[in-house]
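Escalated from tier 1: adenosine-5'-diphosphate holo job.
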Amino acid sequence: MGIEVSNVTVRFGGITALSEVSVSLSPGQIVAVIGANGSGKSTLFNSITGLVSVASGSIRIDDDEVIRIPPHRRIAGGLARTFQTPRFDPRITVEKAVLCGFYPVARSGFVRSLLHTPGSAREERTIRRECDGILALFKLDKLRSVPMGELPMGQVRLVEVARSVANKPKYLLLDEPAAGLTRVEQELLSAEIRNLVARGVGVLLVEHNFNLVQQLSEHVVVLDRGSILFTGAPAELAGNRAFVDAYLGTSGH
Amino acid sequence: MNSYSLFTWRHPALSLLMIVSVGTAASYGHPFLLDNSIMIGIFSLMALSVGISYGQAGILSLATATFAAIGAFATAILTVNYRLSPYLGLLAAILLPTVCAYLLARCILRLSPLPLSIATFVLGGLVEVLIKQGGDFTGGYIGLSGIPRLSIAPSAQAMHFLTWAVVLLVVVLCVSLMNSSTGRAINTARHDPLRAVADGVDVPHLLSNTFAFSGAIAGVAGWLYAHHITYIGPDSLTTQVSITVLLMAVVGGVKVILGPIFGAAILMVVVLYLPAAESQGMFFGSILVFMLLVAPNGLLGSRWRLPTLRGGLERPTSPMLLMPAKEEN
Ligand SMILES: Nc1ncnc2c1ncn2[C@@H]1O[C@H](COP(=O)(O)OP(=O)(O)O)[C@@H](O)[C@H]1O
Ligand SMILES: [Mg+2]
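Tier 2 regenerated the structure:
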């Protein structure tokens, strides 16, 4: 069980964005990925979700090799992610953005949606009800009909997280979800992440705020220019010389 | 609410039903008006096809009339050459364009939308050549005449009802589709295919299905066209017509479900009263420029602001828009 990334290498032309990286994530666990900008954190997410192709290595999700499986099927299989730079249509409302996240759990398909069969109508009602629940959970219910383009960045990120949890994923990959959040929003987000984890969801988290990392995760992976510099408990990191140089050294001043 | 979008009430089909009722009362018993109303209905269907493929899915097609022509020739060949039932013709007029559109999109969508647009343009030319070279089978340059009228709609009045019933049905289908997870995914794929992938959408498959559906709508328009005019030839439903219906859809508002119908009605009525047929091209050209400048989202898609009592123009908010317009600013 879990996500097992083994010896994955990703190249973009001449750049090696990831080299021989291995990470594992179990259900109900939070693994934090940290590292300076350009160290390959987002590329790691992209290779797990299938948005970039890997040069070598293996990625197993619940013991199935997924390297050859297209991204939409990986998502449908219980994976969800957010983007570091949120991708959203600024004209759609908060509610519609979250509704979009339900796509993998919708079973109706094209023809039944077109014909508005009783089954698809029922499904649409269920989805809308569950969407209300998620909006309430993230305290977004008052903003439901606000266009995404009018939200501050912090709330956009919350909506993105809400959209990603809509399909009840087994594994959730959050790419810098707390950047730009207010203190209150950050607490809301960590509480929600803890809830998900308590329900058995495995969370892979890219986060720059080391305090948040220490609060949330028992396991940290440090990437440096595409390679793994350190894996272990966050507490061990503070005294690790290489980490201080590579990570706090670049963004700690 | 100090802004509104015309006729986009809770269910667009209801607003359309009301307008159609008024149109029916006004045209009752007038052969000239009925004929125009039927043609507006048929062009509305082709414009709705554009609305689904271009407005909702972002696939710019120059083959809308070609799919209609495939539908029209399918029913013409079955009913004229083989004396088969027009209702068998309807089946062929739906299936053939659906399959053509699906295969075309499936083969080309893994590239990007532009190659698909070019391919639809090529398809239009190819179908025209096939029709002209088809000999007795397609009627060649002369076309096929003597297509039977429909037994369920033998008179112009009945044809008017049938055509608009079909338009209403298509509107109902489009509204159901766009208010489902599938419809939302279509909109996401139009705006940002990668985002759609991250939502778990098989983008080429979904867009091919959408394009196939838009092909089916055009095919039904072709079926009605063939049995209304009772003639179909190589010059009936050409790429020129595809461009005209594209313009109609854009003028009315491609992203709003009723927009294309509105555009079709307006342009056809205006053309009716245009002094000379030769000025049509110039007229359409100026309409296009005007629309791009004044209301790039189309007549129904734009947020027309009314001055408030306080005198100012407030920031428009339009919750009544069925399909919120996107980007471009
Ligand atoms: N699609 C891409 N094409 C080319 N180079 C890329 C692409 N995505 C990432 N890279 C490169 O890969 C390296 C790692 O980037 P990224 O994974 O985004 O780092 P991080 O998320 O840790 O900031 C960077 O050098 C970046 O320029
Ligand atoms: Mg990144």
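Residues 118-137 of chain A form the longest helix (20 residues).
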